[in-house]
Design a protein that fits this description.
The protein has about 110 residues and is α+β, with helices and mostly antiparallel strands. The chain has a single domain, classed as Ribosomal protein L5 (50s Ribosomal Protein L5, Chain: A, 2-Layer Sandwich), CATH 3.30.1440.10. The protein is about 35% helix and about 25% strand. The protein has 5 helices and 6 strands. The protein has helices at about 30-40, 45-50, 65-70, 95-105, 105-110; strands at about 10-15, 20-25, 55, 60-65, 75, 85-90. Strands 3, 4, 5 and 6 form a 4-stranded antiparallel beta sheet that branches. A hairpin with a 2-residue loop joins strand 3 and strand 4. Helix 2 (about 45-50) packs antiparallel against helix 4. The protein is globular. The relative contact order is 0.17.
């Protein structure tokens, strides 16, 4: 599974819930997710989920792990929906609304296609 591009660093944790954190800088790190949202034609739904997850300059959403390993994006709830547990996606942005517009193509771009 590689939903992210660009410079990445991985930090592995062995806390009660083992996790791997991947961090990247800049828009290039999100290019693959942007492409998948467009390819799978879920930009509108993704925009709604991402907007709901905005808080204090951070966007938080949860992705179905099995679907992500298949190269797709499917949003889910933090618990109970994904048998393997979800992937927590956290994006820090100066302007979350503008970032969401970029990721999802914005309403204007979607209407012209």
């Amino acid at each position: 599974m590689n939903l992210f591009n660009g410079e990445q660093s991985r930090n592995q944790s062995s806390s009660p819930k083992p996790s791997i954190a991947v961090s990247g800088k800049g828009l290039p790190a999100l290019e693959t997710i942007k492409m998948i949202l467009q390819r799978d034609q879920i930009r509108s739904a993704a925009g709604a989920v991402l907007r709901r997850g905005v808080s204090n300059g951070t966007i938080t959403a949860y992705l179905n792990k099995q679907v992500a390993f298949a190269g797709h994006v499917s949003f889910c709830e933090p618990e109970g929906e994904s048998p393997l547990g979800p992937i927590r996606l956290t994006i820090e942005a100066r302007d979350p609304a503008r970032l969401i517009e970029w990721l999802t193509g914005g309403v204007r771009e979607r209407k012209t296609r």
